[in-house]
Design brief:
Length: 142
Amino acid sequence: MKPETLDLLDELVRLHRFSLIRYLRYADPWAENREATEVLRQISDMQEATAEKLESVILEHDGPLPVGDFPLEYTSFNDVALQYVLPKAIAYQRALVASLRQAVDQLDDEPRLQALVEEALGEAKGHLETLEELAGTPAASA
């Protein structure tokens, strides 16, 4: 596997593992609707599972596993209302969808990996729709 492909996988792992939605799981935003909190937890779990799948491909090719942490700016979302932070989570999710689309295009020569990233893209689009529904915003084309 080319080094730039491993770099791409590294970035996709980071985008999933250190996403704003995964951070919110630990920040525990205040929500009137516990169902919304459960939806965020499910999305977080799915993002973690995607990161693990991508990491397994990195390990298969003897690449180093990505390291990192949540951005420091996320700490400003501690103890806030979910409705306040939801637009920011939607913006993050839109950026994730765009990154995954770009990655799919870059993986023409890696069909197995391209299929895995296409699966992650479909999942990310579904999560975006779910977040938009939670926020009560009309679904934008993803």
